[in-house]
Amino acid sequence: MTTYVHYGSDFYNPSLAFRAVNKEKSCKPAEKTGLWGTRESSNFDDGKIVYGWKQWCKDTKYRPETLKKSFRFRLADTANLLTIEKPEDLLPLPKTAPWQLKDMSALKDIPPGEFPTPEQLHEFYSPNPCYLDFEKLMEQGVDAIELRNNHLFSRYLREWNCDCLLVLNPDVVVSMMEESDYVLMQPMSPKGRK
Q: What is the pLDDT of residue 183?
């Protein structure tokens, strides 16, 4: 069973977990909905290297303080995990706005020794955000989405900065808290208070 890590908090609090909700014109769900994680292992089952949140934060120096706190979790055995590995995997998924995978064949047809036109370059390099409909995916039974090969998706799933997991349905999260974590969450007895 795959173990995931969520950075930025010491423990999983189910009472703060909310189902993913769509956010208008965003590739990510609304803030404080869904749960982000990344594989604990540095490799996928097929041996490919995971470029996870921890490595991305180190490489970009983005909020390194979030790496000091984390908790581990896995998905319930009954969870329906959707894995996205290549941009074509986005085509059949429900979206909140029309979207097409851009045709890159125009750059393939450039004769050797010639340069692409500014229009071709613009078409090739311009963002093409894909706004997934997280609510509809949950209606279809998807509990979580795992993104692999994130470097292929920078134009489509903007702000999905690394190989990651987005839990849409918090009911499938199985916390893997250490025994010492439970002690931190226990209420203090009246005698222990000062």
A: 43
Tens of pLDDT, residues 26-66? 999 998 899 999 999 888 878 888 888 888 888 888 888 88
pTM: 0.81
Taking the CA atoms of 120, 122, 127 and 133 in sequence, report the sign of the dihedral they define.
negative
Torsion of CA 152, 167, 92, 130, to 10 degrees: -50
Question: Which of 3, 8, 77 minimizes the C-alpha distance to 41?
Answer: 3
User: Rounded distance, CA 50 to CA 148, Å?
Assistant: 8
> Domain residues of the chain, as ranges?
4-97+131-192
Q: Measure the CA–CA gap between 140 and 135, rounded to whole angstroms.
A: 9
One-letter identity of residue 12: Y
Is residue 187 scored above 50 in pLDDT? no
